[in-house]
Amino acid sequence: MPSGEYDPDAVEPRWQRRWVDEETYAYPDDPVDPNTVFSIDTPPPTVSGSLHMGHLYGFTLQDFVARFERMNGGTTFFPFGYDDNGIASERLTEGELDIRHQDFERREFQAKCREVCAEYEEQFTENVQSLGVSVDWDHTYQTIEPRVQRVSQLSFVDLYDQGREYREKAPAIWCPECETAISQVETEDDEQDSHFHDISFPIVRDDATGVEDADTAETFTISTTRPELLPACVAVFVHPDDEENRYLVGESAEVPLFGHEVPIIADERVDMETGSGIVMCCTFGDQNDIEWYQVHDLDLRVAIDESGHMTAVAEEYEGMHSGEARETIVADLDDAGALEERRAITHTVNVHERCGTSVEFLVTEQWYIEMLDKTDEYLDIGREMEWSPEKMFTRYEHWVEGLQWDWLISRQRSSGIPFPVWYCAECDEEIIAEKADLPVDPLSDDPPVDACPACGHEAFEPEDDVLDTWATSSLTPLINAGWDWDEEAEEFTMEHPELYRFDLRPQGHDIISFWLFHTLVKCYEHTDEVPFEETMINGHVLDENREKMSKSVGNVVEPETVLEEFPVDATRYWAAGTAVGDDFPFKQKDLRAGEKLIRKLWNASKLVESLAPEPFPAEPADEDFRELDRWLLAELDDEIERITDLLGNREFSKARDGLRSFFWNTFCDDYLEIAKQRDDDAAAYTLRTAHRRFLKLFAPLLAHVTEELWHDMYADAVGSAAVVDAADGASDSVHLADWPD
């Protein structure tokens, strides 16, 4: 061993480069016994920025599993990918280059996205490698690369052939900022300040001759947070049990400022406790409006367009942004005497999780994957997996039970994988690409037929929408297993069938409804089986006050700052400090504790080497062991069994704390202190045997210092004349050595 203190600034980068250069963690090219494989379906990070503490924490937890399973007998498949085909990457490009995707032809803008994403991916790769994550860098992918485009389009074609996809013109969730339809999973609740507006609606009555008599009209009050939707009002609803207001049912009302008449209808979905208990239905303000529109066959009045501006239906307010129109309409209602009261409130608003913009509901033509008919089935397949921690299944269950929409998979954006679809210009017949031709881009490629099979017309219109990014990233198990269509056999095959189903899906709890659910749906529909044996769900990193980190609040901890001050192994020690699935605060004291353990392991190793110079001393005769030697090795056997069970159950915190306590107290403070006074073969054998096993036990957690110690104290002796314990599994790398029995 080198003299002096441990120098992580020199040691850690050296091993990180060497692991990559020597392909230490490469998955073998030769056929692998499926019974020995441990496959991990790693989450491809979105290419939309730099490394944050959540990345550092999540990647490190994945690496704990990969390193443990690799040493514990599994031929480990640990790939890495980048999700770079969706709105996030598109918005990143727009922000970086100060452009708008609408101002460019699609292919031109996509080229710009590739350039920006390539720069970020290169930096992101360096950042992940600097964490010492044992990824197989020969197995990487991008969700926009041609191979993945083929898999994504194959998925579309297969689901279409199964009858699980359909195109429909219907109300859809729309983001006016991103100007695209989005799915239910891409919305989140946001508490916002707003106002309730009490607006007076006249009742329109007919006299005995059938002529309207405005002089005898009465009024009622509707409370709304969205007066800008008045021009889209198509009905008024009253709860049938509302004794105070049910006299209105069957009458008509006049919409203030706009003058058109709408029917007043009874419906049980009215919330009598909110506002005045009378609700206007506007096409469309929310999910209830959509349901009322469909059930009661109401008119369609679209007042807000794709960019969030008012349409011609809004008459004099046409062209205003909806926010500006709201204030102008409120002022005009006040001038007309129709505004009874305006009061400030805080309420929950549905926003697009990518940009924070309040969503609208527009009638557009979109592609969907049918899901609502199989929610019970999707709950059942979710139960087939092992959940770490088990409590996270509840989140999955609540999401599936709360589904209100089929999965909307089309996006009106430029960056993404094209739909492999054309339409007959005469009859709108859908023309789907042949599997052998994929990937295709209908904007530049010809359809697979010369004439429409339905009507014989020879002109076609290409689909110019792109697939939702989750429609592709939900296929990561199939992408990594090499799923493809075998034209000759006329069936789907896998290049690496031994990987599927995958042993582990690690991810954050915030994307259970995004990535996990959609992956289960897609892979199940394609293979008729659940794609994972187990899912490991990690929590979020909070600040020291247990508040969510936010740039606006100023409490964000940057990984670069942490790694400049502390060794990577200290951050790995910190990452193992909480139960998987729990959110936990970032505390520097945990990193300092990690530093102390690294120094303790280094100094104890130097002492072991001085007391027992031979790396692999021969095992003494049974009678030469003292009771203390037997006791330590027996206690270590128990500790190995306990640590093995804990790591297998993903209880990293208990494993870390128990191992640290046993090493520091039992081995260092007790046995090592006594062994200083001895000079015999039994002590030397016990010291070296215990030490080698400690390095292995610490290796998944403290990856760099254990590799440095293993290399200096054991790897150079492998293959020499030294006597090696056959069960020791000595190797050039501690991370490829056998896990101790």
TrEMBL record:
InterPro entries given in the database record: aa-tRNA-synth_I_CS, aa-tRNA-synth_Ia, Anticodon_Ia_Val, M/V/L/I-tRNA-synth_anticd-bd, Rossmann-like_a/b/a_fold, tRNAsynth_Ia_anticodon-bd, Val/Leu/Ile-tRNA-synth_edit, Valyl-tRNA_ligase
Cited SUPFAM superfamilies: Anticodon-binding domain of a subclass of class I aminoacyl-tRNA synthetases, Nucleotidylyl transferase, ValRS/IleRS/LeuRS editing domain
GO molecular function annotation: ATP binding; valine-tRNA ligase activity
The protein's Enzyme Commission number: 6.1.1.9
Record Gene3D superfamilies: HUPs, Isoleucyl-tRNA Synthetase, Domain 1, Valyl/Leucyl/Isoleucyl-tRNA synthetase, editing domain
Domain Methionyl/Valyl/Leucyl/Isoleucyl-tRNA synthetase anticodon-binding: 629-740
Keyword tags: Aminoacyl-tRNA synthetase, ATP-binding, Ligase, Nucleotide-binding, Protein biosynthesis
Domain of life: Archaea
Catalytic activity: tRNA(Val) + L-valine + ATP = L-valyl-tRNA(Val) + AMP + diphosphate
Record bears the keyword Acyltransferase: no
BP GO terms, sorted: valyl-tRNA aminoacylation
Domain Aminoacyl-tRNA synthetase class Ia: 15-584
GO cellular component assignments: cytoplasm
Pfam families, per the entry: Anticodon_1, tRNA-synt_1
NCBIfam families reported in the protein's UniProt record: PRK13208.1, valS
Record family assignment: Belongs to the class-I aminoacyl-tRNA synthetase family.
Name of the protein this chain belongs to: Valine--tRNA ligase
